[in-house]
Amino acid sequence: MTKVRVRFAPSPTGPLHMGGVRTALFNYLFARKHVGDFILRIEDTDKTRYVEGAEEYIINSLKWCGIDFDEGPGVGGDFGPYRQSDRKEIYKEYALQLINSGNAYYAFDSPEELEKIRKEFEEQKTTFSYDASVRNNLKNSLTLSKDETEKLIEYNTPYTVRFKIPENENVTINDIIRGEVVFNTSTLDDKVIFKSDGLPTYHLANIVDDHLMKITHVIRGEEWLPSLPLHVLLYRALNWESTMPEFAHLPLILKPGGKGKLSKRDGDKEGFPVFPLEWKSPEGEISGGFRESGYYPEAFINILAFLGWNPGTEQEIFTREELINNFSLENVGRAGARFDPEKAKWYNQQYLKKKPDAELADTFSGILKQKNISAEKEYINKVIGLIKERACFINEFWDQSYFLFQAPVDYDSNSLKKFWKDDTAKIIREIIVFLKEASPFNSSILENVVKKYTEKSGIGFGKVMNPLRILIVGSNFGPHLFDIMELLGKEEVLKRIDNGVSAIMKDRG
Ligand code: GLU
């Protein structure tokens, strides 16, 4: 059996959208599952769309995700170079081969001439398309004599090479995800495949490289489906159909609302990242990344895997190895995959929960240091143990735990309005007596103390607990109160209660 070889072939036209990373991931999983090769190829023949820094960004993103490639820029391999701009010399030969076999032709129409014709068509309420219906009336090597054509080339007249799409033919192809797809060639135009600047366009370069790099499966986004018939026709015209790769077009990633393709704008509007890493455009505009938002790469990979693929079971959390073992293109759906930012957070939370407290403490210590808070490692570990279930990201730890590092300086007025009644101060003074006696000062003893007091006095549990929480935390917020009290210790708890009652009563006049 031929060895599986797949490639991820991004164009460095900007930061890699999460959809691009998903394409890379599915290629990677497929390659690893079939013990094949995964190749990164940079498709940078369109100089007008080239963006400085984009290639580096793509490579760093894949690195962060742990999607390692076997061949590619910086890694090498037997089929290099892997950047199309470094392969310039290769493509011309194939453009000439297509011209010589009658499958392509030189077109000398200038952009101005084409624009004029386009306008004339528009006036007639039709759209111009360079195809079989017009090619015989335009300035190209099909209408000019061989001599005229050669002269124009000799005099350096700018030209393009266009692929001659056969007339009214059905192209049938089996897509692994979509099944049989049929295209009629009358819907296609004669695409430019090469230009007189010596560079191929995407279509030619892509086909030539997939062939020369012995790619067995092309796994890419659905937006490339309309190009598929042209690609198949190119394989045929170059006599490569027998070794043509199989195709799998991945479903679109949809907006959280489910309608339309997910874009950077959706992320900006709703406050979630759409790029793996933060991106600073050459103009200085900054877009947030999953990494900077606090996502773990393992969680990000897990999120992406479920955008289009499903294992056919209830399991949602997959390690990389499990993904590799379970992945199959047959389990990728055709329907668009909705991105759910809340579910994405949930995934991160599952990974966060599994991290050892000591590891989280290392990162959290850094955050605390920035806030000029010093605390013992052991204490930080305990804080984390208490609050980590309540956070999706490490950068939420502070908001969940600030009261475990500093006593409240003011008390939330809404909580007070709701829970501080006329008899509250009296109740608190009574309970303090019992709290002082609690020994050891731990969560379960404290719970017993308060329960005993409420049972004896007939005062509702909430009437004690809510004000106590306000005094210790500053508002009606936080994890289990008795756990908080145990962590803070008797002295600190009593001090907070004392200070709090005085401050609140002073405020009430
Ligand atoms: N360069 C194309 C892109 O930017 C590659 C499409 C393909 O995989 O064939 O997505």
CATH class of the largest domain: Alpha Beta
CATH superfamily of the largest domain: HUPs
What is the CATH architecture term of the largest domain?
3-Layer(aba) Sandwich
Between the first and last Cα atoms, what is the distance in angstroms? 87 Å
| Cα Rg | 33 Å
How many domains, in number, for the residues? 4
Helix content class: 40-55%
As an assembly, this protein is single chain
Written description of the protein model:
By secondary structure, the chain is mainly α. The chain has 4 domains: 1-75 and 251-354, HUPs (Rossmann fold, 3-Layer(aba) Sandwich); 86-250, Glutamyl-tRNA Synthetase, domain 3 (Alpha-Beta Complex); 357-404, Orthogonal Bundle (Helicase, Ruva Protein, domain 3), CATH 1.10.8; 407-509, Orthogonal Bundle (Arc Repressor Mutant, subunit A), CATH 1.10.10. 45% of the residues lie in helices and 10% in strands. The chain has helices at residues 18-33, 54-65, 88-100, 111-123, 146-154, 202-212, 228-237, 264-270, 290-293, 297-305, 320-326, 341-354, 357-370, 377-387, 397-401, 413-419, 424-437, 443-457, 461-473, 481-488, 490-508; strands spanning 5-8, 37-40, 104-107, 160-163, 170-175, 179-184, 192-195, 217-221, 246-250, 253-254, 279-280, 286-287, 337-338. The strands form 6 sheets. The protein has a 3-stranded antiparallel β-sheet. The protein has a two-stranded parallel ribbon with strand order 1-2. Strand 8, helix 7 and strand 9 form a beta-alpha-beta unit. Helix 17 (424-437) runs antiparallel to helix 21 (490-508). The longest helix is centred in the C-terminal third of the chain and has 19 residues, at 490-508. The protein is elongated and about 110 Å long. The termini are far apart. The structure holds glutamic acid. The site of glutamic acid (GLU) has 8 residues, from helix 6.
